[in-house]
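Protein modeling request. Please complete all fields; requests missing the sequence field cannot be processed.
Requester role: graduate student
Desired output: 3D structure, token encoding
Chains: 1
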Amino acid sequence: MSGRIPREFIDELLVRVDIVDLIDSHVPLKKTGANYVARCPFHTEKTPSFSVNRRKQFFHCFGCGASGNAISFLMDFNHLNFVEAIEDLAAFVGLDVPRESAVSQPGQKQKKDDLSSLYQVMEDVAAFYVEQLRIDAQGKKAVDYLKVRGVSGQIARDFMLGYAPGEWTALAGRFNQALLLEAGLLVSNEGGQVYDRFRGRIMFPIRDRRARIVGFGGRVLDDSLPKYLNSPETSLFHKGREVYGLYELLKKNSKPERILIVEGYMDVIALAQFGINYTVAALGTAASQAHFDLLFRFSSELIFCFDGDKAGRQAAWRAMEPAFSSLRDGRLIRIMLLPQNQDPDSLIRLEGVDKFSERVRTATTLSDYFFGHFAEELNLSEMEGRAQLVGRAKPYLEKLPEGVFREMMFARLKQLSGFSALDVSTNATTLRPTKENNKRKEHDRRLSSARVAIALLIQNPGLAEIVEQREIDWRGLGFPGIDLFKSVLHMILDKKPANAAVLVESYRDAPEEKLVKALAFLDLLVPDEGMETVFCDALDRLLDQARKSSIDRLLAKAKVKGLDAQEKEVLRKMLANK
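Delivered output (578 residues):
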């Protein structure tokens, strides 16, 4: 959908959401004093250093330094961009995301209308296919096929299964041809004639996680080829970024313990029939970085299920490169190779649900599969084989994000190769100071008046009224941090943020963002009832120090160079107020 998200809506969203409830739905929190704590989801640790403050609507990790508001959490935790995080946060509190129309770009409204029309025609066609499954004479053969595969009526309804009639123009005479062509549902030949892309096939609507139909997959009922046919790439459908069954999975469980990735539509359907409701399928393409990023938004454990034949093993290995780029600490990928001549449907019928589920839970970890692959191909008892191991494995390991898992994988490579001089190129210990070190540094650091005043102002935007009432003459005043103090003050007076989370959001991608976020969670150990007093005292000390410093500077200049009229007036007022 085109158009900017109004700033007013973003601010309202941050006011409506409770960051404790949001994070607790992803990472279980435990109340400790005024804060809620957990082990940080962004790095591996044994003791909790991840803290969430309800009053500030802010989170901060004292171990790795991650911090931010509810939007920042969703962006970091689920690997979302800004707009996706806003959409997810809006869904969390039950709001629709409005969009602004850009007057300078009149084509945007047309684009929005075109997308809405495309989504609507996809819904209408899906409903038509569902109807044909019930009433078309050939559709009854599709029903018989589904019954033989053990698909119940409830599962067919859950996945909105349908049937594309065998005639060449079943859609063309019923729906807008231009929209059908753009949606990839019609094909135009060299002579300009159009005909239905899907004919005589069981139809599987592909829904995105917002329940919108973006494409279709179709399966023949006989031995003709291709057995499966997918929608082409369109403005709605990008098979490298979508998976089949994700909407249905999330409808059953919004945060599954694990997600099983299989190869076909019918695998997803068949496993759902047996209560395995955490399965999705790639859409006729190899697993991509986008697939990993999408699925890791909803679960920290992914299991890739492949046939045990040569093609299946090759497909498993092709998944290694994008997998390594996606594996940060706390994430797990397993590889599940099926017995020869078995697919998930046949295997679960042969072994039963319990045995199949056990296979899923105990599937080979990525690390064991990765090094096991080389152990099968190379002779590691020879120096040459071990040298090849380093040369072939190291490029994959270098794709791993910094963290404990990366170091352990390099340690495993050192062990197997015997090459102790291998460069790990990172040190998680030095990158992530311990919680105790952070506490010690914070305890030893003497907080300046400026730091206290700015931190309190950020954490309690309502204090800006006190500063405004004083009608401070800022001319000639200077102290460390004055630019940030004035920036925060002006931002509050201009935007009137309801809380610290809204104020911090105003600094997203600004040069001051990092410092503002740090001060937003700085624990000043000031009780609510004493907050105004502490702020006023800090502000008074700050202004007094600034005036003394400015008076000394102006008097020194007057002796050497003299002062202009404006500087004389500033000095006179400062001396009068001293």
